[in-house]
Amino acid sequence: MLKVTDHGEIIELRMDRPPANALNIELVQRIADAHALACEQGAKAIILSGREGMFSAGLDVPELIDLDRDGMYRFWSGFLGLTRILAASPVPVVAAISGHSPAGGTVLAIHCDYRIAVTGDFKMGLNEVRVGLPVPSAILFAYTRLVGNRLAQQYAVGGRLLPVTEALSVGLVDALCPQEELIAQALDWCRSIISLPPIAMSQTRKLCKAPLIEALDNADDIDFVTDCWFSAETQAAMRSLVNELKKR
After folding, report:
1. Architecture of the domain defined by 2-180
2. Other beta carbons within 10 Å of 185
């Protein structure tokens, strides 16, 4: 599910759960645990990457749809907890977006410090509304922080996925590169950041991310999104999605 590569002072956490790196309880927990271990062992920066062509397709709806309320509460606690782990990471985290990254894939990326996406016919964004799930408040805050209020409203309310070229133009990603250069560019970004005076860089980074961390801490999103998940509208949309996936 997760491959860990040591690049010296930089650790790469590569999601590897075929075919789509869909997020379930176990993968979310493995990312959180690997991040914690990397920091404990002295990593100075972390790369979160995915399979070629697919960073993450988002939530594993076919698996999650059969969970009871306690199970879904546990999932949301872990997933939203992971967003805070990434946002409040003691070391910089770069998302190496290796392909498609809808919904939960974009959620992980927007809580990192920097985002590099591969060129190609790939899309990303928050399309939760299209499958009957409102965007949680803290996730919407993180999204708005990157693309601005007007575009965040248009994109999130409409459940729009953006081509990576448009994602770059509006600030959802910071750079594009060919697939074969992705990890090299992520490493270059990490090395450029950790080469700076560490106390000054870290303190400034904390100040920049403080509003996002505050939003994550003050949100009541776990109860909210769990309630929404079991609403008639969301259940109908999710089960329709599962049926469509079975036909593919």
Report:
1. Alpha-Beta Complex (3.90)
2. 17
